[in-house]
Amino acid sequence: MTSEQFSFRSREEKKAYVRSMFSDIAGRYDFLNHFLSFGRDYSWRKRAIRTVREHRTASGVTSSMILDIACGTGDLSFEAVRQIPDAQIVGVDLAKPMLDLFQQKIDQRGANIRISEGDVEALEFPDGSFDAVTIGFGTRNFTNLDIAFREINRVLKPGGIFVNLELSKPRGFPMKQLYTFYSKFIVPLIGKTVSKHGEAYAYLPDSIRRFPERETIVEMLRGAGFSEARWKDLTAGIVTMHIAVK
Ligand SMILES: C[S@@+](CC[C@H](N)C(=O)[O-])C[C@H]1O[C@@H](n2cnc3c(N)ncnc32)[C@H](O)[C@@H]1O
Q: Domains along the chain?
């Protein structure tokens, strides 16, 4: 698999590829997520929602309208329900099969979460609708980050928080070397075997490699209108959490 295969000619081409890929792997997504991260993904999501909760307490806000973009099968939304039980949560995703699985989990758990099919680049919500926006492992797949960040800023209330979790590129020895080997060789092999999708788990490390550096994302967030933006590495930089306030 060469990385040229993931060079898309247009935004539409990438969006169609991403939608179809996540639709194809939806049934195996949760298992592979937990397996390939050795279960660390639970703690990353906990950390992201704790950041939202702490911001809420610090700013004295009593409402909690949370938008979980690229919600997929819903694990980040469920963590928000667990930590902020009075929150009203809306999940949005491009891939219907991911949302179908999310809906099944909502029904099983009787959770108060509303979901809809949608694109981060054209959100259906009025300006200033949400106290918080969260994204877990979605931004790498977006086709235009500037448009996405501006849309997120638009739907947030003034003072609202955006927390973005994304797989990252560790910078320090020996994690950088170990992780490069793991993501380049092991992830595609296990991913292909379990998901039966030839490309999805080769696209994964390629999309991490192509994703802008931490500092560039901070600049983009400021350019999109956020008054504060910073980043924090988790698990030695395997994941980076960006935190921005409108
Ligand atoms: C890796 S999954 C993450 C799912 C979930 N947030 C989690 O933490 O496990 C990425 C999700 O992003 C969604 N996605 C990709 N591009 C999108 C876009 N432009 N708008 C909304 N969702 C998008 C995909 O359909 C997929 O479900």
A: 3-245 (3.40.50.150)
